[in-house]
Amino acid sequence: MNLNFLKPAIDRLPEVRPPSVPPSLKERLFYTGAILVLFYVMYHVYPVGVIVGEDSSMQFLQLVLASKIGSLVTTGIGPIVLASIFLQLFVGAKIIDMDLSDPKNKALFQGAQKLLTIILALFEAYVYTNLMTIDPIFGAEATRIIVALQVALGSILLMYFDEVISKYGVGSGIGLFIAGGVSLAVVSGMMGILTGFGGIPQSNTLIHNLAEGGANAIPLAIIALAPLISTIVVLAASVYAEGIKVEVPLAFDRARGYGGRYPIKFLYTSNMPVILAFAFLSSLQLVGRFIEGINVQIGGVSLASFIAAYDPTGQLSGGLLYLISPNFPSPIAIAGGMPVYINLMLTSSNTLLVPFVGAVLVPQYVHAILYAISLCILSVIFGYLWTETSSMTARDVANQLKGVGLSIPGFRRDQRMIERILAKYIPVITILGSGFVGLLAAFADLTGALGTGTGILLTAGILYRMYEEMESQRMFEMYPALRGMLGA
User: 332 by DSSP, 3-state: which?
Assistant: First the structure.
């Protein structure tokens, strides 16, 4: 399959022109800051026809997709990411036959991605209108269509904002939007802990506990800060893990004495394993919803109830899926804060209906342990699959290094030798790094870290990479000749 038939439509799409002169670091920071401000404006603007309200039922997805249901960024970066995944899978599976090393093919691929993003934005925007409270000022269906068009326009603008960042700013727009959304959630949560902002009980706030006085004032104030402390711990651990790496020495085949090192980071697959694990758990919950009405009895117990049970509000409250899902009360929102939350985790139980056995009480701490273990296992599985499908295996990396004329000093100039050396590190690091991010995300979720565990992990990685890019830009400004040598 070839994408040339899309060229007439792609040529009519607006495009952000690349700069004729590479922007300075100061200019890049200006463009990055301006786009972030525009994102925040869209984040707080509601389309015409939508009744303002908060929706926390999909908080994790909203943070990961840099979205806010009901606002102009309701679908967030979802259409952009999905379009990229679909086309990359099609190219990887050879359904679309394209050599992306060819600049013309790469430009055609990027244009097709923009076109697919627009189509997905329109589709997702209309689907998301089912989650909004709409005022039928133009009639029910007409208003729904108008709202969907406004929301789709929001995602299309984010697509072009991402293009501006990639050409004029620092990092990527997608990463900037995710980090911006998570940072906003962390700041809002921090304000809640300090003052009670956002409906948080006064008994959980720092100011209230300090104002009460007495011998327990300081200990209670520290306990009130526990979610914030947990957030800082997870952020620090993420940044530290980003800097851990194994360096494999390399040498140029045609230039003796010249070479470098190939860094294999501890977080080799970044945060993708835990994102895919959460996406998988979300899909399982949708399956649980689908089979909810199926009445099949096994051993006197409904199969649907054994797999997933829901409370009257529609929240997952029991079944096997509940045991591996992060459905825990928020320490901030519970009256009494962290002490009451810990007591609930140690003393409360959930009922699991087991075929041929009946009702079985499962302590909440067992639920927490099973969730942490399942998230780690899923992260490892998806981390391995990600290396296989994204050209990150030892064989793929060896082929890339051999293609640019690099080899391992002291060994034969053979791709198989490079692959053998890399195979000692990449599989082990993939397992350890994927398990680490899964465990860290579970710890953050169980301790009530602000911005969710995955959100903090994503933000830490994004900010770390932005820092590295700013360092490289500063190096280019100090040594302009280096830019020409590296083709940057």
Answer: coil
Name the amino acid, one letter, at 229. Answer: I
Compute φ and ψ for 310, nearest 5 degrees: -125, 145
Q: Which of 428, 77, 79, 420 is nearest to 265 (CA)?
A: 428
Q: How buried is residue 12: exposed, middle or buried, by Cβ count under 10 Å (0-12/13-18/19+)?
A: exposed
Please classify residue 336 by burial: count the beta carbons closer than 10 Å to its beta carbon, then call 0-12 exposed, 13-18 middle and 19+ buried: middle
Count CB neighbours of 216 within 10 A.
11
- Name the CA dihedral angle for 480, 481, 483, 487, rounded to a multiple of 10 degrees: 150
At 318-331, the pLDDT tens digits run 788 888 888 777 77
* Span 1-168 CATH architecture: Orthogonal Bundle (1.10)
Beta bridge partners of residue 131, listed in sequence order = none
- 106 pLDDT band, cuts 50/70/90, is confident
Question: Per-residue pLDDT tens for 25-70?
Answer: 888 899 999 999 999 999 989 998 888 766 555 666 677 778 888 8
The residue with tokens 């082929």 is: 399
The beta strands (E) that lie in 27-135 are given as none
For residue 292, which phi and psi values (nearest 5 degrees)?
A: -55, -40
Residues with Cβ within 8 Å of residue 287, at least 6 apart in sequence: none
Question: Taking the model in full, what pTM does it have?
Answer: 0.74
Q: What angle do CA 134, 139, 143 make, to 5 degrees?
A: 45
How do beta strands 406-407 and 245-252 pair? antiparallel
